[in-house]
Amino acid sequence: MQLKLKEQLLTQNDCYREGRVLKPQGVMVHSTGVAQPDPQVFLRGWNKPGVEKCVHAFVWKGGAIQTLPWTTRGWHAGTGTTGRSANNTHLSFECCEPAGHTYQGGTMVDYDVKANEGYVQDIYRNAVALTARLCREFSLDPLKPGVVICHREGYEQGIASGHADVLHWWPKHGITMDQFRRDVAQAMAGGTEEDEDMTQERFDQMMEQYLAQRAKLAPADWSAQARKWAEQAGIVAGGAQGQRYGSFATREELVQMLSRLDQLLSQGQSKK
Ligand SMILES: [Zn+2]
Predict the structure, then answer these.
(1) What is the dihedral of CA 109, 110, 114, 116, to 10 degrees?
(2) Ligand 1 centre from 78 Cα, in Å?
(3) In angstroms, how far is the first alpha carbon of the chain from the final one?
């Protein structure tokens, strides 16, 4: 399935207005840390001066919304224990969390894993698709260490503040960041981002259908004379499906036609 990506830049946010340049060398995954599945709530809250944070995109159930130009430096990682910040290197997006839970410190309380399974699958698929798209656009290798990381991993690597996202959440659904990186790489290699429902069997069915449709196309007037000749000479066989003029000829049909033509020519010669 294709990622539904739209643009809604946070032009009133101080980070956007500052407009420092980012040369993307990685992607950092965040989650908002609040039970709010509607991205518009965040967009409204962040699209004004005095908000000390800004990411490049929000991932929600229905797709992704770009909120900063990809080459503008974001405010999402704070500063890590090394004194460095992923703000200088990484693109960033927030994943919207489902409704229903609360927080005690960095821990989710009353989080219903079973009820949220479908929601998280949608979020995960969109997060994979967005990250794959960004990695492709900026020639990033998601499997290289430090390229695709979450906020928590950034903290452990000393380049982000002490937050737990998304490792306080995704592992409840059996998702690891290693799995995420593999799925991003696979989406980049196999094009599964574009249409994950496509199988060989389904492609074959669609091809059959396409060929059947083409075969039914009515031929144009300009070929009328040639068609009449070919039909009378028995070069194009009709049969139950008609002459199928809009269809492609197989190599088998081609040699059959040539053979028939050869017979006609020999007959012509023998009459001389
Ligand atoms: Zn974060």
Answers:
(1) -70
(2) 9
(3) 66
Backbone phi and psi for residue 85, each to the nearest 5 degrees, phi listed first: -135, 135
| CA of 34 relative to ligand 1 center, distance in Å | 11
Reported pTM = 0.71
Count of other CB atoms within 10 angstroms of residue 192: 18
Nearest to 74 by CA among 4, 1, 185, 154: 154
Q: Which domains does the chain have, with CATH numbers?
A: 5-190 (3.40.80.10), 217-270 (no CATH)
Confidence check: pLDDT of 23 > 80: yes
Could you say which DSSP state residue 199 is in?
-
Overall average pLDDT of the 258-269 stretch: 86
Q: Which amino acid, residue 32?
A: T
Count Cβ atoms below 10 Å from residue 48 Cβ, excluding itself. 11
Rounded to 10 degrees, the C-alpha dihedral 248/191/32/29 comes to -160
